[in-house]
């Protein structure tokens, strides 16, 4: 009996020690887990210079700025034309021109008159709505005189207009970002640096907006340069220029007179053909008369 009791006591004691050790291990593990859940202390704050902030924000802007949505932009076509017309009387042609301009809802932008010993010229720059450009050109071509020269050009500026519009939108985004940075600037140096960037952006935006306005104006209103030309009749007696020019005029008048006389004789060629026939008939008549 004694022999059996001693091993049982030892076994019971060992089991109790083992359970106590397990409880102790569990307690230690719970403490370690709770320590792991505590967040680590934040790192010490560092002062960042404003120049580095500007660079960082610029890089951030570069990542966020994207081209605006692909809105459909209508075709931008600039039409220009030049016409030179020879007319009989300047005043009459000018009145006809005014009527044609009003009919096509156009207006005369510039007007210049030149009067020389050789000719009279009236230079007109006419701005006309894009849709009425062809009608205006046809009215001058068919209406007031003889067309000496005519040229029409069409320039497609859609690509340029789109490019300027996209860049303008991006510059406005940059400008707003810089203004936000200016409100958070802490030193005078930083403020001056940001203000300089804002000033440069504002200048670039003004240039881009001016370019778009110019393109819109040229697209909406086409330009026609019109020259009304009247040649004067010159003579050596009425010319008020120097002797050399007057001598040249006299020589030219003599040559022109000879050419006019020669062309006048040629204009009688049907009658010239009758002369040999008349001579032949007259000779036959003479021969027949002598035989009688």
TrEMBL record:
Q: Which domain of life is it from?
A: Bacteria
- Bilayer-crossing residues are 258-282
Coiled-coil positions are 175-218
Q: Name it.
A: DUF4349 domain-containing protein
Which PROSITE patterns does the entry link to? PROKAR_LIPOPROTEIN
Q: Which UniProt keywords apply?
A: Coiled coil, Membrane, Transmembrane, Transmembrane helix
DUF4349 domain residues: 75-283
Organism field: Chryseobacterium formosus
